[in-house]
Design brief:
The complex is a heterodimer. Chain A is an alpha/beta fold. Chain A has 6 helices and 6 strands; from the N terminus they run H-E-H-E-H-E-H-E-E-H-E-H. In chain A, strands 3-2-1-4-5 form a 5-stranded mixed beta sheet, with helices on both faces. The longest helix of chain A is centred in the C-terminal third of the chain and has 77 residues. Chain B is an alpha+beta fold. Chain B has 2 helices and 10 strands; from the N terminus they run ββββββββββαα. The longest helix of chain B has 23 residues. The chains are: A alpha/beta, B alpha+beta.
């Protein structure tokens, strides 16, 4: 049985761990709020942009812009969004599992290239799918997400236009709540224009749309806006991924803190029992010693 | 007193930057500046990096904006949607100046194809330049 001193030491170390996990949880919670606000703030822009691109594409047809045109080939570029740091529950593991599933099963036999974001995804795929990896970069933060997505989307647009790939898909964790994140595949290229929802006053709306004056022309507008829409999709997935990472870390650290608490309770119980046993032994010795002196 | 019946929203992926009633919007399109007044027909235009000015007879507000688009809705409301936007008094002049100096050298010396790297660099230059222009126009 462990000595009293050993148990005391263990309790101390578990307490320290608990302090760390609690601090990580609080930090993640504070940053999560900011990340969630960023997602909400991005929504109006995103909706307006996809509505306008959808309208233009509807009028002009899918052949109007090379980034809208479906290709026949099988070459897929997968952008994998993970984080640089671990200790975030299943956040990275579920993405990595999906990558393996896509490459080995869903897209078996197809030419899949990977662009990896985040150190954790790279560590995983480097060992398994090294020949598929095209490039790796560190995960963005909330502040660098815009520049990050501009750079990344420029690169994937070039690859698509140079006919190196036929489809570009982003794999990321969609933020549902701090407890739940959904692994989501989003096709960014070719751009899939939002389909206008059928509504009753559609004819009226259409009449309105017909009266629009386009400057310079619909075609030029598409040229200008479609790359922005691609960039915005990438940006959106960055924000979702950041919020998911923080949410996942928060829940993971919350349960780690609880587990540490349980462990401390158990160890304290063991410690008290051992202490009591030592006292009892000592008492018995004293009593029997006294008895023998009397005799 | 000039009328202020033109509702304008300036929206970016970071959230709304301005929401105001004014009398005119001056914005940078592909072929130079254009102005929207009250009662404009429904309209959709490209927006390039530059300076958006709200107000003409009323108090003027200047914004540095990135690429995006401007839409006049059938209701008459004006939506300015752009990738970045910054009110003139929030611009960090020093940072913008340093960015212009750094990127303009690279853009001017660019020899290769106009690929992703070039476009990323150009976007940085345009945005920094837009901020400096906005400062200049507002007289700061």
């Amino acid at each position: 049985m462990a000595s009293l001193k050993d148990i005391r030491k263990r309790i101390g170390s578990v307490k320290n761990t608990q302090k760390i996990t609690r601090a990580m949880k609080l930090v993640a919670a504070a940053r999560l709020r900011k990340a969630q606000e960023a997602i909400t703030a991005a929504r109006p822009y995103s909706e307006a942009l996809s509505r306008v691109v959808g309208d233009l594409a509807e009028h002009a047809g899918r052949d109007a812009h090379p980034l809208l045109a479906e290709k026949t080939g099988d070459r897929i570029l997968l952008v994998v969004m993970t984080s640089d740091k671990g200790l975030a529950g299943g956040f990275n593991a579920q993405i990595n599992r999906k990558v393996a599933e896509l490459i080995k099963e869903t897209w078996k036999g197809k030419d899949v290239k990977l662009r990896i974001v985040g150190r954790k995804g790279n560590d995983y795929s480097k060992r398994r799918f090294e020949s598929n990896i095209l490039d790796f970069r560190l995960a963005p933060t909330g502040d660098s997400a815009l520049e990050f997505s501009r750079e990344l989307s420029n690169e994937i647009v070039d690859e698509f236009l140079d006919d190196k790939v036929d489809r570009v898909v982003v794999l990321y964790n969609e933020f549902v709540s701090a407890m739940t994140q959904n692994v989501t595949e989003m096709q960014v290229l070719p751009v899939q224009p939002a389909v206008r929802e059928e509504s009753e006053d559609e004819s009226e709306e259409h009449a309105g749309a017909g009266d629009f004056v386009y400057e310079p022309s619909k075609q030029d507008l598409l040229d200008h806006l479609v790359p922005l829409a691609v960039q915005n999709s990438v940006f959106k997935s960055c924000l979702e991924s950041i919020a998911s990472e923080l949410g996942s870390r928060m829940s993971a650290m919350d349960s780690a803190t609880n587990n540490a608490g349980e462990m401390i309770n158990k160890l304290t119980l063991t410690y008290n029992r051992a202490r009591q046993a030592a006292i009892t032994t000592e008492l018995t010795e004293i009593v029997s010693g006294a008895e023998s002196l009397k005799g | 007193m000039a009328s202020t019946n033109l509702k304008v929203n300036v929206v970016t992926p970071q959230g709304p930057v301005a929401q105001t009633d004014t009398d005119a919007v001056l914005a940078p399109g592909r072929m130079g500046q254009f102005e929207i007044l009250e009662g404009h027909v429904p309209f959709l235009s490209e927006l390039h990096a530059g300076v958006v000015t709200l107000g003409e007879a009323t108090e003027k507000q200047h914004f540095a904006v990135g690429p995006g688009f401007l839409e006049v809705e059938p209701s008459g409301e004006v939506q300015v949607l752009c990738e970045q936007a910054c009110a003139v008094d929030e611009i960090d002049a020093e940072a913008a100046k340093a960015e212009v100096e750094e990127t303009s050298v690279k853009v001017n010396d660019w020899k290769g194809a106009l690929d992703a790297e070039y476009r990323t660099l150009k976007a940085r230059l345009d945005w920094a330049q837009a901020q400096l222009d906005a400062l200049k126009i507002s007289g700061n």
